[in-house]
């Protein structure tokens, strides 16, 4: 493997891993803030329990997201120093705003929320979680501003071979950013909705399995309770409300991702036509959307690609909003790219092993084609499952089927898969560019960078390979830690976040049922860091 390929694997592995935490942090954080708002407004015990339980899981995920996110910025100087030199004047501004403004605010107010239970007035304490989660969304905006500039550079000029920013507001109001941000936020809500749905289904099923809840002859729930282990009638209200809220959020979020995704696709057809042609395996000009194509979708000449199922006119609608305008295919676009940007990389030492190599303007079509469909397919499956869940639970509980419970729990992964596939498609689809040329504004189309020129020249293949293996091993270990913590506290239910709910003498149902205020040496429930021990 060449240094370029290893460097790309390194950044890809760490970025996709980190992004598993991002949508859950954003989506679940805003849900927790909404639940706490409901508690402050109504005073209902169920909303306090919802806030405490989901807040615990939010914190576990947030901590892991911070640990993996910090690595991302260091990589720009480790394996991609030439890229950093080229875009540093532009990239530095949104990254600095993210760190100094958004992340600082997020960290400070999240700390106040963690330690402020029973110490701050209710409304002031509520404000801290809203400020923390709002800052998370703001952080995403600044990161997306940097990424959107890579997809569509604006507000810059080329000076001595470097991109120099001339208009910060153009960067922060990039039209690519303005559709990418709501698409990302709605995707985050889809993840949070699926998370709530799957876990709540498990706990409602467990109540039925243990005989706490039953159903009458009309199939309506008869709520029971076992207060000794914290599974009283309020516990039932917690899970049924979380399930139905999660399902509703997932359905609405999918509608939001579909609308913003359509806007994003229309921009991509204009700004990165090769990416969208590859996503459709559209070798020739046409109007039809490929539902299923087979063959060697990685071949540059497209000779072996065969479309088996297609929808006439749909591709034109996605690109232009009508059903008749032809969309350029791969075979039309490649000569246009070659004429504008050359057929071979410059014979320059900065390109290392790639110097003078022929440029392949077609991304890996198998990745873009299937990534696009996995993104849409998994999102649609998650939304359909949420709609079914709303119908199935209309009488107040879930079926006793263990397989349905397992399906609901595994369904949590679907929106995660959709988000990850979307990012892989977005980043892989812009190859061979790390900064894509902007064809929309005269004079800016010369601000671009081939990925082959972005790698640090002083880093060897052995060093890169060592870092990839090291990161992979460390991240796998972190994954095991996070999954174990999540499983531990999910299985424990609300008592895992509020151990005082387990009555003295009860059998306990939390992960550490012995640590209750009713027993000598027990920790108080407001010790929100007890998950670390």
From TrEMBL:
- From the record, give the transmembrane residue ranges: 20-41, 53-71, 91-115, 127-150, 180-202, 238-259, 370-392, 404-425, 464-487
Region (Disordered) spans which residues? Answer: 501-533
Q: Does the keyword ATP-binding apply?
A: no
Q: Does the keyword Lipid metabolism apply?
A: no
Annotated localization? Cell membrane
Compositional bias annotation for Basic and acidic residues: 516-527
How the protein sits in the membrane? Multi-pass membrane protein
Keyword tags:
Cell membrane, Electron transport, Heme, Iron, Membrane, Metal-binding, Transmembrane, Transmembrane helix, Transport
First-listed, main subcellular location of the protein, grouped into a coarse class: membrane
Its family remark reads: Belongs to the cytochrome ubiquinol oxidase subunit 1 family.
Know the name of this protein? Cytochrome ubiquinol oxidase subunit I
State the species of origin. Answer: Arthrobacter gallicola
